[in-house]
Amino acid sequence: MSAKHAERTISYASPEDWDSWSNEFKKLAHAYDLWQYIDPTDRIRWPQRPELPEIRDYPRQADPDDPDSGTMTPGSDYVPPRRIGELTSEGRAEYEHDIRIYSLKETAYRETKKQEQKLVEFVLKTVSATYQKTSCVTGDRLDKWYQELRRSGVVYNERLRPEARDKYHKAVHTAPKINKLNEWVTEWETTMAEAISKKVPDALDVQCWAEDLNQAMYHVLPSWASTFRQHRCPQILNNSLNYREVAADIRYEAKMANASGRPSGIKRGAFAATYGAAFRNDRPATTDRDNDTIEVQGDALDWATDETSYAHRDTRGQGRRHRA
After folding, report:
1. What distance in Å separates the CA atoms of residue 131 and residue 42, rounded to the nearest whole number?
2. Residues 6+ apart with CB under 8 A from 194
3. How many angstroms separate the CA atoms of 221 and 254, rounded?
4. Domain coordinates in residue numbering, the chain
5. DSSP 60
6. What is the mean pLDDT of the chain?
7. CA 272 vs CA 251, 297, 312, 314: distances in Å
8. Among 16, 116, 183, 217, which is most buried by a count of CB atoms within 10 Å?
9. What does pTM read for this prediction?
10. Which residues fall in a compositionally biased region of kind Basic and acidic residues (predicted)?
11. How confident is the model over 44-48, as a mean pLDDT?
12. What pLDDT is attached to residue 191?
């Protein structure tokens, strides 16, 4: 995201805005290679502007018109060189070397200042006037600005931790459905990211969230759940398992589970009518038809009427055969 686009969508006018604003600020600071000068946990000094080498600081020839006259020793009557031609050959080589180093440092310094100015403009365009007045003091660098802006946001984030914890527990205790597993995984992944940012203990400990996830997935993908802990055990124990990687695994399993695209539910006109001992709810279905099975092509609602008429005809036939 460019700085101009971020300015249109991101603002910091209240403590609730801190998370999104700080995240965007960090992304820009990294992109501009400035975060190492701002990071409150491990900050290094801002680059200092290099000093231009002075010809007067290098050795002068004893006789400017004679290159072989040697070096003039500084004394009471010593006049520092003012032109490069007044330097000794060694002094000239040293001066030219220092000038090249200076040019490289000056270029790097100017580039850093240019990027710093971009980040300053982002702050001034996205931070409210109230926060600028209290946190962005003229003359201070960006590291001081960020530190002051961070104070109110961090305090508010501490209050949001219980809410993030509740969202996390709600997500892992809601049993997913196979046909909506992708949506469930996305919600779980989003909840995990928020819980981690708010430092919810259960989301920071892999053993805790892995167990919660395993229990939730057992109801929808039992085979995956039964092997999850075995395959991921080393990463779980050393707290190195990445929840986004696990989410990708679940999405793949969901795709495979739904690959056949079989419709769920019962369609009209697809019932099989059975008689006698074959008509039992607790008996497993079979794919082969037997002599007691009649396929009904019409609406299932008409089945009861048809069964009554067939039974009545069969009874009358038995009566005639019995009298005969």
Report:
1. 24
2. 164, 167, 168
3. 9
4. 3-150, 173-257
5. B
6. 79
7. 36, 9, 20, 20
8. 217
9. 0.54
10. 51-63
11. 95
12. 94
